[in-house]
Amino acid sequence: MAMATVNLRAVTSWVGIARLFAVVLSCVAFSLVASTGEYKTPYGTWCMFTWCFCFAVTLVVLMLELLELYPALPISWDDFTSAFSMLAALMVFTTSVVYPSTSIGSPCSSHCAQKAVATTASCLCFLAYALEVGLTRAKPGDISSFLSTVPGLLKVFEVYVACLIFSLLDSYALEAGLQWCVAVYSICFIVTFLIIIFTIGRCLAYIPCPLEKMLVGYNALALVMYITATILWPLYSFKDTKRPNPCNSECVWNKHLGVTFLTIFNLIAYLVDLVYSTRMVFIRTPS
Asked: Between 20 and 30 A from 65 (CA), which of 105, 168, 183, 205?
């Protein structure tokens, strides 16, 4: 039976300190928002979920590393923590933008101090997770933990942006061009998500083919598919249409504009991913 030992470096190293700050700041954010009672809109619920989810998972990570229990888990721990810190940074960043823009009016009508402090805590929490990502990122030439490399971190970014795209999709069933774009988002999301899951679960080694070259080929294909989506989505979404007035956050035109920008973000991500993956596989740095 495995004995738990205490490893104080889990909370005294720079990575551990960044995680402690993330736990405290996310707790402050959701506690203050909960005290206002004004979080039952879809956006408010998303923000509360983000803070609570990041708080809970980071606390579990800290406890497992403090007690050195993580080696017993059947996963690649470094890949898991790298992927989670990147995901948490993206989620908290989104929340830090969404919460004040949807919950703090101009002028503010109620619980202004709590909302302002919660927003500040959320922004600082994002910086804590971003610091963790920077501290745990693999050094050039080190591929022992794939998800801590630039291509690995980009995989998490690509999946998260695809999720944001899905949340904005509306009125695409009548145009074949828009249906193709949704197929692009879905196919690339599924394949990239499976790469992340297989990496964390240590399953990629069982694939009977040159994995690195396969990933380069997939990145090239995903880039071509996203190029078509970047062209077709705005072409069919805004053809013969003008922005209605007024047009709030639930306006279809605004949602289509959001999908357009997110598609461009993912296009750039897959391009950078392809460049880095190609350099890692085909361009060897002389030792």
From this structure: 205
For 196-215, the DSSP string reads HHHHHTT-GGG-SS-HHHHH
Alpha helix positions (H), 67-175? 77-103, 112-136, 150-168
d(CA 149, CA 277) in angstroms, rounded, equals 10
> How far apart are the two ends of the chain, measured CA to CA in Å?
44
Both tokens of residue 230? 């970047």
CB atoms within 10 A of CB 26: 30
Which of 84, 219, 221 lies closest to 145, judged by CA? Answer: 84
**Contact present, 200 and 75 (Cβ < 8 Å):** yes
Counting Cβ atoms within 10 Å, is residue 42 exposed (0-12), middle (13-18) or buried (19+)? exposed
For residue 148, which of 181, 212, 196, 216 has the smallest C-alpha distance? Answer: 196
Burial annotation 193-225 (CB, 10 A radius, 16+ → b, else e): bebbeebbeeebeeeeeebeeebbebbbebbeb
Is the CB of residue 151 less than 8 Å from the CB of residue 276? yes
Identify the residue whose tokens are 């249906």: 179
DSSP 8-state class, residue 75: S
Cα 278 from Cα 28, distance rounded (Å) = 43
Assigned token pair, 243? 């922005």
Is 87:160 a contact under the CB 8 Å cutoff? yes
Q: Tokens standing for 277? A: 């993956």
Q: Where are the domains of the chain?
A: 1-143, 149-286
pLDDT in tens, 14-69: 999 999 999 999 999 999 999 888 777 888 899 999 999 999 999 999 999 999 88
**pLDDT single digits (tens) 64-80:** 999 988 889 999 999 99
Q: What pLDDT does 1 receive?
A: 45
Q: How many CB atoms lie within 10 A of CB 122?
A: 28
